[in-house]
């Protein structure tokens, strides 16, 4: 099965992070696990996240964008709310959270729950009692 790609952005004006999912059902499943996530009507694939308390700055790393915090505790607290990150410690003893971009469908489902569309396609067959 094909890997699922997630994109991560930081909106400087809104001071919020954006996780862009491949489908709106993935974004909705994520929002059900993280009640801080917002999904805008005109951007159903994006989940917007507030900045975590204690965030110092953003930096690049070999794993992608890292959100660096003033303490390991602050990083762990934000990680527990964001669900899709992993804790990293840089050489300078900075604690951060990095976001994995490539996910197998099974691993993503473990983190955010079932993200299949809730309703299947309509059936062409009429029900016996509907005639």
Low-confidence stretches: 118-122
* Dominant shape: globular
Helix content: 10-25%
The spatial strand order of the largest sheet comes to: 2-3-5-4
Strand content: 35-45%
Biggest sheet overview? 4 strands, antiparallel
- How far the N terminus sits from the C terminus, by CA atoms, comes to 41 Å
Overall pLDDT score: 87
Secondary-structure topology with pairs:
Layout: E1 4-5, E2 7-11, E3 16-20, H1 24-33, E4 38-40, E5 43-50, E6 55-61, E7 64-69, H2 72-82, E8 85-89, E9 95-99, E10 102-103, H3 105-112
Q: What would you note in describing this structure?
A:
- This protein starts with a strand and ends in a 19-residue tail after the last helix.
- Helices cover 22% and strands 37% of the residues.
- Strand 2 and strand 3 form a beta hairpin.
- About 4% of the residues have low confidence.
- With 131 residues, it is α+β, with helices and mostly antiparallel strands.
